[in-house]
Amino acid sequence: MNTLLSLHLFKKWPNRIKKELVVEYGTSEKDLLAFLNRQISLNDELKRDWESAQEKAHIETAHASREGYSILLFSSTDYPDGLKEVADPPMVLFGRGEWPARKSPLAVVGTRKPTGYGRDFCRRLAVELSAFPINFVSGLALGIDAAIHREALDMGATTTAFLAGGLKAISPKRHTVLARELVDEGGGYWTEQPFDQAPLKQLFPVRNRLIAGASMATFVVEAARRSGALITAQQAFDYGREVYALPGALFQPMSAGPNALIEQCCAQAVTGVTAFSTRFNPSWLKNDAYGEATEDITLPMMRQFAPGRKLSSLQLRMALNCDNSIVFRELDWMLKQGVLEKIGPDKYARKTV
What we know:
Number of domains: 3
Distance between the termini: 49 Å
Mean pLDDT: 90
Number of strands: 11
Order of helices and strands: HHHHEHEEHEHEHEHEHEHEHHHHEE
CATH class of the largest domain: Alpha Beta
Helix content: 40-55%
Strand order of the largest sheet: 1-2-6-5-4-3-7-8-9
């Protein structure tokens, strides 16, 4: 039985602590397990909880075998890169389908009661971005979530959902067929909750951090001032990811949330879809000859530049584990495209719009 699965189901320690342990010991499951056993054996209550987590891991493994779903471990190369970078990732994801690692993930979220304005924008966004290697990420909920999933599928683009509950039943039930289509078209749906877990109200904000963390950026289409979509946007902002919002009429309730994010400088306003593709992912501007050489480094480098973060070429080289020549070539391209700005002899930062 996998130690990471037991650790995931062990609720006495927060995900932040679990990640620190796995980063330190994760290359050797034997060493990790030995450390856990030493620590837990010192406390009878922890020992009982650990034994319970191991039993739950056996049950979950049996469910996965019987139901045919995947258990994606934090240590796997198939686990979303964006989630690996946040402070509080789950040690395991349960799901069906796959995480399309070579496509750029964009979270699109919003109200369960969209207007025609919001639905039309989802269609336009899917039409524009489907020309690129995009993965639309959302939550399979009613409204904007369902709209972006559906429009992406209609345009032949990949789309992925994160669920609040376990895989036993899709919520809402009417989206069971839609979830199946996500898998059939190269995406999938994932959750950190065990198979039998119901989608309780308090689990939705927990789920929202997966949407924000797995994605390069989060786009709020329509939302009230107090909504789950704004929770997702705040989590993306806290993770150092870009946040975009669709501005709307001042007295339109479903535009109040995006307008507030823009006014508070938490999100960048997007007033058209044509130029948004390369604003979201500047590497899409590259021609084939140039882009092929540095494609693998562009997105990891962009993720290093959280809003307000200043980095040197040495810091980038160490973080990305690549040659100086590649770092400087990519920096030069990003400076020319206006993605970054040079703020010192060897200091760079993300250029604000």
